[in-house]
Automatic annotation (TrEMBL):
Any single biological process term in GO: DNA transposition
Matches recorded under NCBIfam families: PRK00283.1 (NF001399), recomb_XerA_Arch (NF040815), recomb_XerD (TIGR02225)
Cellular component terms per the entry's GO annotation: cytoplasm
Protein name as catalogued: Tyrosine recombinase XerC
Core-binding (CB) domain sequence ranges: 5-90
Classification via SUPFAM superfamilies: DNA breaking-rejoining enzymes
Active site: residue positions: R151, K175, H246, R249, H272, Y281
Record's subcellular location: Cytoplasm
CDD domains from the UniProt entry: INT_XerDC_C (cd00798)
Alphabetical keyword list: Cell cycle, Cell division, Chromosome partition, Cytoplasm, DNA integration, DNA recombination, DNA-binding
Gene this chain is encoded by: xerD
Domain of life from the UniProt record: Bacteria
Oligomer status and interactors: Forms a cyclic heterotetrameric complex composed of two molecules of XerC and two molecules of XerD.
Every Tyr recombinase domain range: 111-294
Length: 307
């Protein structure tokens, strides 16, 4: 494979490929190269190299575009540009495989991706093995993603010191290191406490002592690992949907909306606004957020019914 050591040169070659081999118009070439720039900047901020990119990395990038409110039509154009770019990298022997080959274009007019039903989420949790460390951990991961609407990056960085059992809140570090408080259901707390019993038997790597979810070697988990855990559980359950960790976040918001929760409260819990730690304590009515979760999230309704 050729080394990817000069991004500027590769961009020039890509432009030539689009212009002369694909025969695209000037506007299309500019759009494709601009979309490629977006991806490259995103990867650089994440500390990743083009040669190491996987399909889950691209799905996460696309999920970020959705979070930013990019329309399905614009998402489709960006995906086309990414496909073309990685196809170019493969035929020019910069990468051995094309991670964008299976990316699907969103349907124009389809504003939300697939969501999971409560029954499907229950099935995923039931597919975990309660007798193994990974099984108990994975159940807690699914429950936390769904009950709190976290981004996958927020989940892997979740700290034990930011988990307040008695108050039933977690402090989440979101984009730009902004923090927010999110109510956590009793069901999720129970799953995390069961996981913590298994976690206590691990030899924990230095620097990961305060990280909640760890791999079996005692180190912080990667986002890609979470992607594959969810894919594997869906496969075991026979769930035939385009699923990623972000699907559970969308399911969280969708189920709250369908249950009649206040849109403003959902936006705050998802972290769509830049709210610093001080602003959270001073301006957000935490009892109101807890009430929205307790009244409208399926997990809490299920918990109440169990009494």
């Amino acid at each position: 494979m050729r080394e990817i050591d000069n991004i500027g040169k590769i961009k020039e070659q890509f432009i030539a490929y689009l212009t002369f081999e694909k025969g695209l118009s000037r506007n299309s070439v500019e759009a494709y190269t601009d979309d490629t720039e977006k991806l490259i900047r995103y990867l650089e901020e994440d500390g990743k190299k083009l040669s190491d990119i996987t399909e889950p990395d691209l799905h996460e990038f696309l999920s970020t575009l959705h979070d930013l409110g990019i329309s399905p039509r614009s998402q489709a154009r960006i995906i086309s540009g990414i496909r073309a770019f990685f196809h170019f990298l493969k035929i020019e022997h910069y990468i051995p495989h094309n991670p964008a080959e299976l990316l699907e274009l969103p349907k124009i007019g389809q504003h939300l991706p697939d969501t999971l039903s409560v029954k499907e989420i229950d099935a995923m949790e039931q597919a975990t093995d309660p007798d193994t460390y990974e099984g108990v951990r994975n159940k807690a991961i699914i429950e936390t993603l769904y009950s709190c609407g976290l981004r996958v990056s927020e989940l892997v960085g979740l700290q034990i010191s930011n988990f307040f059992i008695n108050e039933e809140f977690i402090v989440v570090k979101g984009k730009g290191n902004k923090q927010r408080m999110v109510p956590i259901s009793r069901s999720a707390i129970d799953s995390i406490l069961a996981y913590m019993e298994k976690r206590n038997s691990l030899v924990i790597k230095k620097g990961s002592e305060d990280i909640l979810f760890l791999n079996r070697r005692g180190a912080m988990m990667s986002r890609v690992m979470i992607f594959y855990i969810i894919k594997d559980l869906c496969s075991k359950c026979g769930i035939d949907k385009r699923i990623s960790p972000h699907t559970l976040r969308h399911s969280f918001a969708t189920h709250l909306l369908e249950g009649g929760a206040n849109l403003r409260a959902i936006q705050q819990m998802l972290g769509h606004e830049s709210i610093s730690t001080t602003e959270i304590y001073m301006h957000i009515d935490r009892s109101h957020l807890r009430r929205e979760i307790l009244e409208h999230h399926p997990r809490n309704n299920k918990h109440k019914e169990s009494y």
